[in-house]
Amino acid sequence: MSRKIAVLASDAPSAQAAQSALVRRYGTVPEDGADVIVALGGDGFMLYTLHRTQGLDVPVYGMNRGTVGFLMNEYSEAGLMERLDEACEEVINPLCMRAESADGKQHNALAINEVSLLRAGPQAAQLKITVDGHVRLEELSCDGALLCTPAGSTAYNYSAHGPILPIGSDVLALTAVAAFRPRRWRGALLPKAATVRFDICEPKKRPVMAVADSTSVADVLWVEIWSEPSIGHRILFDPGHGLEERLLREQFV
């Protein structure tokens, strides 16, 4: 089947060279007229592309011209149209973040991977954690904490010793970053429909920043996070190399 593709690339020289080669061979169209968006770069560029094009309802097929490339397929100039015809689609719902900063402003952002709270000073952060209106942890003393989607569970969450989540699971992972007290608290698995609130204790003495993927808010007082089912990011993978397979494979490395 003939497809109209929009070929996008990060600023990396390898991505720019790949874009030139693919455009010469297959052509390109504007994003809003494409059947498929082909993104060339690493995971960061894939997240950037998904965020920027979420209103188009066009699937994104990534090819790795970056480093890790967990969300990307292997790069090859040949057979692109056939690969697109055979690709499997995964739909990911992002997290919504609402936060209030010390200046009284409210901030909203979306996160495909995770929302993280990180200490922004020399002292450990102290966080009160509430889930669906019930206080679950009065005080978590830590370097930070994060809430992630299954798609983001192999990113920062995994580095913080959080669990890898199957892509089809209706759960979110709440993970501490270098927890001091409770010392052995490693986090929790929460229903996808849960709303999580972090209140920052002693925000002047122990400042905290919130980060939703690449959007950061300094000096937050509280942060609320929930999954947004009305937004679906469509990602294409080569058969046998989808997110579910990648998540399983990552656990046996």
From TrEMBL:
For binding NAD(+), which residues are annotated in this chain's numbering?
A: D43, G44, N113, E114, D143, A151, T154, A155, Y156, N157, Y158, S159, A178
Q: Name one GO molecular function term.
A: metal ion binding
Where is the chain membrane-spanning? none
Question: What reaction gets catalysed by this protein?
Answer: NAD(+) + ATP = ADP + NADP(+) + H(+)
| Protein's UniProt keywords contain DNA repair | no
Gene Ontology CC, one term: cytoplasm
What name does UniProt use for this protein? Answer: NAD kinase
Q: Which organism is it from?
A: Pelagivirga sediminicola
The processes (GO biological process) annotated in the record are: NAD+ metabolic process; NADP+ biosynthetic process
Per the annotation, which location comes first and is thus the protein's main one?
cytoplasm
| Name of the encoding gene | nadK
- Database matches in InterPro entries: ATP-NAD_kinase_N (IPR017438), ATP-NAD_kinase_PpnK-typ_C (IPR017437), NAD/diacylglycerol_kinase_sf (IPR016064), NADK (IPR002504)
Enumerate the UniProt keywords alphabetically.
Answer: ATP-binding, Cytoplasm, Kinase, NAD, NADP, Nucleotide-binding, Transferase
Q: Does the keyword 4Fe-4S apply?
A: no
Q: Which SUPFAM superfamilies match?
A: NAD kinase/diacylglycerol kinase-like
Indicate where this protein resides in the cell. Answer: Cytoplasm
Q: Which HAMAP family does this chain map to?
A: NAD_kinase
Annotated catalytic residues:
D43
Protein function? Involved in the regulation of the intracellular balance of NAD and NADP, and is a key enzyme in the biosynthesis of NADP. Catalyzes specifically the phosphorylation on 2'-hydroxyl of the adenosine moiety of NAD to yield NADP.
Q: Per the UniProt record, which EC number(s) apply here?
A: 2.7.1.23
Q: Which cofactor does it need?
A: a divalent metal cation
The entry assigns this protein to a family as follows:
Belongs to the NAD kinase family.
